Amino acid sequence: MADEVSVGGRSPESCDGVTLAAQYRGAPAAPAAPALAVRSLDVAYRVRGADQLALRNVSFEIARGETYGLVGESGSGKSTAALAIVRYLPRNGRVSAGSISVGGRDVLGMGQRGLRDLRARHISMVYQEPGRALNPSIRIGGQLTEAIKTSNSPRNEAELTAAAETMLARVRIPDPRRVMDRYPHELSGGMAQRVVIAMALSATPELLILDEPTTALDATVQAEVLDLLAPLRDELGMSVLFISHNLAVISQMCDRVGVLYAGELVEEGPAAELLRAPRHPYTVGLLRCVPRPGQRKDRDRLDAIPGFLPQPGDKAPGCVFAPRCGLAIDECRTAPPPLFEVGSGHVSRCYRHQVAQDLPLTQSPLASPVPMAEAEADADGDAGPVADEGPEGLLVSVEGVSKTFQARGGSVRALRDVSVSLRAGQTLGLVGESGSGKTTLARILLGLTAPDPGGRVTLDGAELAATLAKRPLATLRDVQIVFQNPDSALNRRATVRRLIGRPLAKLAGLSGPALATRLAELVSSVRLAQRHLPLKPGQLSGGLKQRVAIARAFAAGPRVVVCDEPTSALDVSVQAAILNLLGDLQAERRTSYVFISHDLEIVRYLADQIVVLYAGRVLESGPASAVFSAPHHPYTEALLSAMPRLPVAGEAAGDPADTRIQLAGEPPSLSDAISGCIFHTRCPRKLSSGICESTEPGLLEGEPGHLIRCHIPIGELRGLQLSPGGTTPRNSPGAGSA
Amino acid sequence: MTDTTVNPISGPPVGTAAVAPVQAPPARWLLLMRRPTFGIGVVILAFWIVCAIFGGSFAPHSPLAQDLLATNSAPSGAHWFGTDQLGRDVLSRVITGARDILYVAPLATLLGTVLGTALGLVMGYLGGAFDLIASRLVEAVLALPAVIIAFLFIVALGPSTLTLILVIGIIFTPLIARTVRAAVLAERDLDYLPAARLLGEGPAWIMAREILPNVLPAVLVEFTVRLGYAIFTVATLSFLGFGIQPPTPDWGADIYANYAVLPAGYWWDTLFPALAIASLVTAVNLVTDSVEQVANG
Ligand SMILES: Nc1ncnc2c1ncn2[C@@H]1O[C@H](COP(=O)(O)OP(=O)(O)O)[C@@H](O)[C@H]1O
Ligand code: SF4
Ligand code: SF4
Ligand SMILES: [Mg+2]
After folding, report:
1. CA atoms within 13 A on the CB side of A722
2. Is residue A334 part of a domain?
3. Domain-located, residue A59
4. Edge-to-edge strand order for the sheet containing A264-270?
5. How far is residue A318's CA from residue A339's CA, in Å, rounded to a whole number?
């Protein structure tokens, strides 16, 4: 492969002389040409009359059959690179220097016809949002056959349909014929993304560009889509440019990785080596932002990267990362560092690459572990009533809550008989795929949605009214929320001062100087600055906006805060800072959290208790440590195995696909009545005796407080999950005992 | 279908790199100032406003002074726009005729905008049965020709400028309510509304302080669009004899009073008031277009 790369590096020039006509007839490029060669690429956007460089001197190559990952924060230039390669830059963007060649064809010199041919036959691109690539008013079948027609010579209808079906089968869509009759909005996100991938592959492109292809998907769906891509790539002999901000996903998918920072490629190398032993302080910092197994909120703080990406147009004389770099020395600020060769095929744009991993921590490790968590854990055992808590030491309890929505065409049972409880100062992690009822449960707790009659929500033992209108101000003060998307949760016409000041006036009853003092305290406790107060949300970055939302939630001293995916719209570096902030606020104020996330690593880091929801049903609940270690419910087991993992120093790199449990199909429709275990349609451990289909299992208690809803006895589950071959679907042993 | 919609690498490319902290876009009023059509509209509008307020003091003659010896005299040095059937100076009547239409039309539009915005906010935010019933009513009112509704009211209340304001305001209310309701529906799924409810804010606060500022651009556009219609409606009703009543100088009423003598060749009696109406409506539309484009862009 290395040979190919070096030879290929010269070939674009040799192709320059070839006439365009020859190129778009698909003249075979030199066989040694790399699938993609980007050379010294500069891309500038014209903003208010001035050019701003979004990519600066970026060079990389993708060999045939190779998967190359591009990582970086939002704004680092990942998408700009992808768009430049397919010549889809926005109108104000242009390539101001450098060259791009795809399979030896010079992309920048192409005319319209050449470009059309390039896009139809040689490169395909998949975006984060499958909705953008699908036309909402055309059936899937129509769109697929159209895509096949544009990239291949026209054939007759029957052949086209057959080809479309083959495509869908190739991306493992069950029952392709039915899917072809659907409209895009009738498909789930994962299904739609698979259709888009099928369309992208219809041209059997040489180069597939995936721009955050799984970011919008649930963990299990993400795992399925990723598992799908690797064999297809090998089968079709494609090269892949894989863009993601998720380092674990990159490590799972890619052969080589390039790290982009502020438009510069700062490090590049073989994926496993680069992620295990990064040699640029930025990469080191990024990796430290991600919670690792074993890290816990009460012991370890996440290490966020301080500061912001430089503004485009800010031109520092030295290293672009210097303002945020803990290792910067004088030399860094005077001359930009060149690329240093730090290993075979591993380069780093850093003067101090040798000591990069000694990057000082930005967060002092917690000097003394927060005592409350331990104290709480001890209190669990003796159950002694604590003064300000309910009789059982519970702060919030939800008992037997169900929710049925009346939708057209029937009723949707979003939650069925759900009971959860939460202690003061603790975090309850709510885990489950989208549609499992996490948000509905949170809204019921908040009083935004009224549950079906029968269930109870209590705070300190007192029952809460079902609707917000009937709840007293004191209850509103006690239960608050941080929403997923601050753009939606903050009124874009309000200033930060009003957004934070209003709850102080309304819920805390403050005014005048008292309000001003509390406002100032609050602003500093969420690490905002006074200068942010007159700004509106549109003038703040995503992380700052989320801090405003957190300040609003904490303004009146809440006792429970629901965090609904509060970091999923943020970059990892920002996410780390927000998680630290939430951890600090909890430690200071003993606030309890209901933390909803599909990122299990984050839940593991933050949660004390975990509830696993599936199609509105609690399948497993218990202390975080118990839920994360065997025995698990078969569904939890699948969720955990679907988690993309970062390579850990010193650990052999195994193929994760080998140990991953694949869940077939999708969660059951909530409008149908399901007999037996709600998970039986997808359960890899379903018992052959038929009991799973006929009888719904109860919640069995393993360790104290650890409940699993499964017919397989807990001891046996443990045996299955700990044994080496235990992850393969099988039936017999459990059947006998059930 | 064009191939861009089915091509897997289609779709509008995303914008430039988003970087923190984001800068504010240039102020909207600045963008307005840069548009030439906006400037032309404003100049014409300003001219008529000056006429409306000060017209009485600089009009060459009294608009009411009759000179029965010089009826229907053609434009001349003494009467630039000629005289009408009663020998009144047409130029003076055109200048002072701006007065009533220029307060009746904006006040009527304002009334319709205030009522329509309030109704639209309530319909959009509360939804449910109220919205259902109100929407049906709105549709029903919109199905009737506006002039018929106006006649009904004017016959019932008697013609006066107050009636005119009320009638036009009420006719505009459902139209504006429909637009505002649509804008509110787009806001209703956003999380800042449950966030406000969780702070204990009541519906009135949420509608007025949370939603209204976000739908204000739509309201502003609606106001300017309706203003053009209001001017036309006032002129039409006056022309039909249901609006501003003679002898008060008014363009619509003057066209009505004089168009009978048009076949006799006395074109100046009707042409100048008609041009006045046209220029005012055009000016308002020039301003409207600019406001709309800036508000939506
Ligand atoms: N207002 C509603 N009307 C009808 N169905 C709803 C409504 N809200 C949620 N649902 C349904 O309830 C189920 C659970 O949704 P949700 O609680 O949002 O899940 P999650 O938060 O896990 O993504 C989904 O099937 C969703 O379609
Ligand atoms: S060159 Fe200097 S400033 Fe840049 S990353 Fe290396 S140590 Fe930090
Ligand atoms: S009860 Fe049966 S179907 Fe349900 S989780 Fe257990 S083994 Fe699987
Ligand atoms: Mg949700």
Report:
1. 10
2. yes
3. no
4. A123-126, A207-211, A239-243, A67-71, A256-261, A264-270, A346-348, A340-343
5. 13
Is some CB atom of chain A closer than 8 A to the CB atom of B27? no
Ligand 1 midpoint to CA A450 (Å): 13
- Quote the DSSP letter at residue B89: B
| Nearest chain B residue (CA) to A476 | B198
Q: How many domains does chain A have?
A: 3
What does the angle CA B168 – CA B173 – CA B174 come to, to the nearest 5 degrees?
A: 125
Q: Do A314 and A205 fall into the same domain? A: yes
Question: In terms of domains, do A159 and A212 share one?
Answer: yes
List chain B residues with CB under 8 Å of A543: 20
Q: What is the pTM of this model?
A: 0.79
In the reported structure, the alpha carbon of residue A11 is separated from the centroid of ligand 1 by a whole-number distance in angstroms of 54
Determine contact: B36 vs chain A, CB below 8 A.
no
More confident residue, A471 or A647: A471
Range of the domain at A505: 372-595
User: Ligand 3 in contact with A709 (CB < 6 A)?
Assistant: no
Q: Do B213 and A446 touch (CB under 8 A)?
A: no
Residue A246 lies in a domain: yes
CB-side neighbour CA atoms (13 Å) of B35: 18
How far apart (Å, rounded) are the C-alpha atoms in residues B262 and B2?
A: 56
| Residue type at position B50 | V
Provide the shortest C-alpha distance from residue B260 to chain A (in Å). Answer: 56
Q: What is the ipTM of this complex?
A: 0.80
- Token pair for A156: 């007759």
- pLDDT tens string for chain B (297 positions)? 333 333 333 333 333 223 333 344 456 677 777 788 899 999 999 999 999 899 888 888 888 888 888 888 888 888 888 888 888 888 999 999 888 899 999 999 999 999 999 999 999 999 889 999 999 998 888 888 877 888 888 888 888 889 989 999 999 999 999 999 999 999 998 999 999 999 999 999 999 999 999 999 899 989 988 999 999 888 888 888 888 887 888 898 888 888 888 888 888 888 999 999 999 999 998 988 888 888 776
Closest Cα in chain A to B16: A45
Q: CA A494, CA A474: separation in Å to the nearest integer?
A: 25
Q: Which domains does chain B show, CATH number per domain? A: 36-48+79-296 (1.10.3720.10)
Is residue A212 located within the same domain as residue A269?
A: yes
Query: Given pLDDT bands bounded at 50, 70 and 90, which one contains residue A364?
Result: low
A78 CB neighbours in chain B (<8 A) are none
User: What tens digit of pLDDT does each residue of A29-53 get?
Assistant: 445 689 999 999 999 988 777 888 8
Q: Which tokens in the block code for residue A31?
A: 């066989």
CATH number of A239's domain? 3.40.50.300
Output the CA–CA distances (angstroms, integers) from residue A305 to A282, A343, A599, B137, in the order listed.
8, 25, 20, 58
